[in-house]
Amino acid sequence: MTHVFHRHLQHTPPVAVGGQGLFLRDAAGREYLDASGGAAVSSLGHGHPDVLTAMHAQIDRLAYAHTSFFTTEVAEQLAEQLVRTAPAGTSHAYFVSGGSEAVEAALKMARQYFVEIGQPERTHFIARRQSYHGNTLGALAVGGNAWRRAPFAPILVEATHVAPCYPYREQQAGETPEAYGLRLARELEEAIVALDPRTVLAFVAETIGGATAGVLTPVPGYFKAVREVCDRHGVLLILDEVMCGMGRTGTLHACEQEGVVPDLITVAKGLGGGYQPIGAVLAQRHIVDAMSQGSGFFQHGHTYLGHPVACAAALAVQQVIERDGLLAKVRTDGDFLGQALRDALGAHPHVGDIRGRGFFWGVELVADRASKAPFDPAQKVHARLKKKAMDLGLLCYPFGGTVDGNQGDHVLLAPPYIASREQLVSIAALLA
Ligand code: PMP
């Protein structure tokens, strides 16, 4: 009998009792190879000694100080680290406790920015179908999964959803990737114009789609064209890198590979690497200046923002990534992982597409390869796959089957950056 309010109320999961490196252990003594880092969270694996040492030292020194009274050395150091490594023009890091909170804060920053600069008529967000931005009401409103929004639709802020960048299904025959990207940017512009550009706050997108679409990597030029469209209409660009950011794709921020600088970047998951709940909004100077020169106050905040132990964990994770050259490792070993997945699964009759970057890969499952027809959601292929993988001692992150547009079943692979090549090969072999 459990008194924990598990999301799946009819099923109590195994009890995790230990973790080391890429492995988790349950109370029955079973070991699991963590091929998804939880949900793309664990960047350095479990029990990393440098992170634990930094956290212990911080707990001994100071575990908590409320930000209405104090800042802390460790929050200042983490913000300095994040701003130094962020795209040009980033001036501040606003701390929160997770991904949804980061998105929520970014949406409110966008709104308050326009209020401060005298454009209060901007009230509308544009986001993408088949996206996930979190479960708080604002993040849910911009999220592109109609099934998730459905029960709450009447109480959500205004958001319009345009097409995601999903070449496997939506790039037309004869259309080059570049032309496809430009078409999507044109469609975004049409949506802005249809709403009246003066009413649009921001376009919100995951740089690389994650938890609803099996890793959607953008086509070349797409985000540059999107940035131009946003600039033309004074609309902010918010890139959600909660899942794909903090090194997961081989650069610290995925948007670096797209050659664009968004107004706001949201990060979480890999920031604290699972050692502590922490997220951040990385803000460009003009956003912060508008608030500091206007009301002088961001009208938002949570009790635990900038929690010292969370900041210590995140700072240690980031320092290890830098010290050990893990971004370069993720780039080269990421190509190796992609090849291992293609070798093991490429010819499988139910694998439609394998796509990704760095240590962020998605496998799209189909009932029929030729027609790309997804499985009937009633078959719950993703849930069966998750169970089978766990029985084999593998943690991967399957989801899907909710019939939302053409969303089918996907498996997400996001191993910790420290994974050895042998472990990457094992992941591909176990999946096959
Ligand atoms: N944005 C993205 C892109 C995500 O993948 C997630 C979580 N899967 C979130 C936001 C929400 O993060 P959290 O679950 O930490 O609230």
UniProtKB/TrEMBL annotation:
InterPro entries cross-referenced by the UniProt entry: Aminotrans_3, Aminotrans_3_PPA_site, PyrdxlP-dep_Trfase, PyrdxlP-dep_Trfase_major, PyrdxlP-dep_Trfase_small
GO cellular component, one term: cytosol
A GO MF term: transaminase activity
Cofactor(s) the protein needs: pyridoxal 5'-phosphate
Pfam family name, one: Aminotran_3
CDD domains: OAT_like
UniProt entry tagged with the keyword Transferase: yes
Keyword annotations: Aminotransferase, Pyridoxal phosphate, Transferase
Family: Belongs to the class-III pyridoxal-phosphate-dependent aminotransferase family.
Name assigned to this protein: Adenosylmethionine-8-amino-7-oxononanoate aminotransferase
Protein species of origin: Acidovorax soli
